[in-house]
Amino acid sequence: MSVDWLKQLAAVLPPEGLVTDADVLEAHRRDQADWAPAGVARALVRPSTTAEVQAVLRVASAHRVPVVARGAGSGLSGGANAVEGCLILSLTRMNRILELDRKSLFAVVQPGVLNGALKMAAAEVGLWYAPDPASWEFSTLGGNLATNAGGLCCVKYGVTGDAVLGLEVVLADGSVVRTGGRTVKNVAGYDLTRLFVGSEGTLGIITEATLRLRPRPPKATTLVASFPTLVAAGAAVIDIVADTRPSLLELMDRATVRAVEAHMPLGLDVDAAALLLARSDAGGEQGVAECARMAAVCEAAGATFVIQSSDEAEGESLLAARRFAFLALEKQGTTLLDDVCVPVSRLAELLAAVEHIAAERRVIIGTFGHAGDGNMHPTLVFDRNDADEVARAQAAFDDILRAVLDLGGTITGEHGVGLLKRPFLARQLGAETTRLHHTLKAAMDPLGILNPGKLL
Amino acid sequence: MSVDWLKQLAAVLPPEGLVTDADVLEAHRRDQADWAPAGVARALVRPSTTAEVQAVLRVASAHRVPVVARGAGSGLSGGANAVEGCLILSLTRMNRILELDRKSLFAVVQPGVLNGALKMAAAEVGLWYAPDPASWEFSTLGGNLATNAGGLCCVKYGVTGDAVLGLEVVLADGSVVRTGGRTVKNVAGYDLTRLFVGSEGTLGIITEATLRLRPRPPKATTLVASFPTLVAAGAAVIDIVADTRPSLLELMDRATVRAVEAHMPLGLDVDAAALLLARSDAGGEQGVAECARMAAVCEAAGATFVIQSSDEAEGESLLAARRFAFLALEKQGTTLLDDVCVPVSRLAELLAAVEHIAAERRVIIGTFGHAGDGNMHPTLVFDRNDADEVARAQAAFDDILRAVLDLGGTITGEHGVGLLKRPFLARQLGAETTRLHHTLKAAMDPLGILNPGKLL
Question: What region holds the FAD-binding PCMH-type domain (chains A, B) (predicted)?
Answer without folding.
Answer: 37-216
